[in-house]
Amino acid sequence: xxxxxxxxxxxxxxxxxxxxxxxxxxxxxxxxxxxxxxxxxxxxxxxxxxxxxxxxxxxxxxxxxxxxxxxxxxxxxxxxxxxxxxxxxxxxxxxxxxxxxxxxxxxxxxxxxxxxxxxxxxxxxxxxxxxxxxxxxxxxxxxxxxxxxxxxxxxxxxxxxxxxxxxxxxxxxxxxxxxxxxxxxxxxxxxxxxxxxxxxxxxxxxxxxxxxxxxxxxxxxxxxx
Length: 225
Hints:
Strand content: 25-35%
Structural class: alpha+beta
Order of helices and strands: HHEHEEHHEEEEEEEHEHHH
Largest sheet: 9 strands, antiparallel
Helix content: 25-40%
Number of helices: 9
C-alpha cells in the first residue's frame, strides 16, 4: 500500500498541470531557404474548418505544415509541439499517419509490421531512427518518416496503427503516471525516395536543421566522450 501511495503521489506531482514553459516558434526554427527549393506554409488541414478541428483534437501549443517544391519533387514537413502536462502520449500516437492517412483514403503498402529508417550524412550526422511508411492513392505514392518524441526521445509501441489495447497498462509500468511529457511530433513526407533525396544539398540542409528539435542522434558521440 505504501509503495502504491508513493507511486500515485509521484504521478500527481508529474501531472499537476501544464508547465508554463516557453512555446517554440516552429516557423522560425524550420528553414525557408534550402537551396533551390520553393517553400510554402500551408494550413494544418486542407481547410480552416479541418485546421480548427485538428487544433481541438490534438490541442497542440504550436504547429507548422510547410511544403518545399523543386520541379516535380516535393517535400512536406509537419511539426507540432506540446508542453509537459498538455496532452496524453496515446492521444498523439493515435494521430500518426498509420491512422489519419488511412482514414483519409490512402492505402498503406507496408503493412507487415513496424518499419524504421535512419537518415545520415557525412561527416557524422545522423537523425534518431524514424518510423517509415509508404502510402498510395490512385497513381500517387508517398514515402513518410515520422517521430513522436517524449522528452526528446523517440517513442513507438512497435506496431502499425493505433495504440494497442494493452498500452494503458504498459504505459503505467514503463512511465509511471508521467503520461503527459513534453512532446514533439515530426513528419516528413515526399514523392521521392529518401535515399535519392540524400544527394540533394537542399534536402541535407533541411535534415540538418532538425537538430534544433532534438532529433539528431548523438549516441555515438556520447560513447566516444
